[in-house]
Design brief:
Layout lengths: L34 E3 L9 E3 L7 H16 L8 H12 L21 H19 L61 H13 L4 H5 L15 H13 L13 H4 L4 H19 L8 H4 L2 E5 L5 E5 L11 E3 L12
Parallel strand pairs: 1-4, 2-5
Antiparallel strand pairs: 3-4
The structure holds CU-O-CU linkage.
CU-O-CU linkage binds next to α2 and α6.
């Protein structure tokens, strides 16, 4: 087969294909004349990501301040709150072309781009926040919804005066209501069943052997496009729609791709998704995909110095090279075989 990795071309970025009822917005980032290839930073201090429900005191103050500063940046600054949210909009609503002649367009959901794209997204987001507060050790917390103590919306996100607050959330899913990892917008509300949630995480992480099931279907530029989410992505979907406001047309903010990056909790949700990828590899024998088109697929992100950088999926597979790790917390679902 001809190798045809998805390679993001900034010149192809166009109007997003938004869901009905969404206010039209341009999602493309500012254009850059120069794009550099990502190089691993040397001598960076380790960033340790902690459960959001354990973040207090100084750490919380720094996080809030970093998001406050990000919100204060002008919208055309690629590091701004708006631009960071728009990254998700552009990559999820067909803004980038696969090649000049053919649909379908680039999507980072329902296929194997899901895991590496979001890992990179958080990487740059975290670095930008750290640089705004001048703290290279700044680490994005994770929403530890796979642990009974972290299953509700972490308190740090619910203070209305905080930069971490977002008004567009489900009013019935506020703490102490626990998340439902089987949530279905139209179904019965079964929020709060801890064991059911553990069984779901077990099924989507511990019980998954092959990378094809874990990461989802392939996605290549010259064909071979299908659209099946892997178990990691399937597990993550419910938290989105459970959190978003059902009175908005598309469950905004968290319930729709174009708007979910506007809720700061999005990044902590994905921090946990990213952590479960690592746990799958470290504790359950998971192995990354080795397909060339996967490894060479590439994305564009602005870094903390406002430089546009090209990253490849293969460069993010070793998390330690990116300079962060997850705090060890008990894995309460490891024996939750249904
Ligand atoms: Cu790109 Cu949680 O979605």
């Amino acid at each position: 087969a001809v190798a045809n990795p998805v390679v993001t071309d900034q010149n192809s970025c166009g109007r997003p294909n938004l869901p009905a009822g969404a206010k039209p917005i341009p999602c493309c980032p500012p254009k850059a004349t120069n794009i550099s290839d990502f190089v691993f930073p040397s001598n960076q201090p380790l960033r340790v990501r902690k459960p959001a429900h354990l973040v207090t005191g100084d750490e919380l103050a720094k996080y809030k301040e970093a998001i406050r500063l990000m919100r204060a940046l002008p919208d055309d600054d690629p590091r701004s709150f708006t631009q960071q949210a728009n990254i998700h909009c552009a990559y999820c609503h067909d803004s980038y072309a696969l090649d000049s002649t053919l649909p379908p367009q680039v999507k980072v959901h329902f296929n194997w781009l899901f895991a590496p794209f979001h890992r990179w997204y958080l990487y740059f987001y975290e670095k930008i926040l750290g640089s705004l507060i001048n703290d290279p050790t700044f680490a994005l917390p994770f929403w530890n919804w796979d642990h009974s103590d972290g299953m509700d919306i972490p308190a740090i996100f619910t203070d209305r005066r905080s930069s971490l607050f977002d008004a567009k959330r489900n009013a019935n899913h506020q703490p102490p209501v626990l998340v439902d990892l089987d949530w279905n917008r139209r179904g019965v509300d079964t929020s709060g069943e801890v064991d059911k949630n553990y069984a779901k995480v077990y099924k989507c992480i511990a019980d998954v052997k092959g990378p094809a099931c874990f990461f989802g279907s392939s996605f290549q530029a010259g064909g071979g496009v299908s659209s099946a989410a892997g178990s990691l992505e399937t597990l993550h979907n419910t938290c989105h729609s459970w959190t978003g406001d059902p009175t908005d047309p598309n469950g905004e903010d968290m319930g729709s791709f174009y708007s979910s990056g506007r809720d700061p909790i999005f990044y902590c949700h994905h921090s946990n998704v990213d952590r479960l990828w690592t746990i799958w590899k470290e504790k359950f024998g998971g192995v990354d995909l080795s397909d060339k088109d996967y490894l060479k697929s590439s994305f564009l992100f602005y870094d903390e110095n406002k430089n546009l950088v090209r990253v490849r999926s293969e460069q993010c597979l070793d998390q330690s090279k990116l300079g962060y790790k997850y705090m060890d917390v008990p894995i309460l679902w490891k024996n939750a075989k249904p």
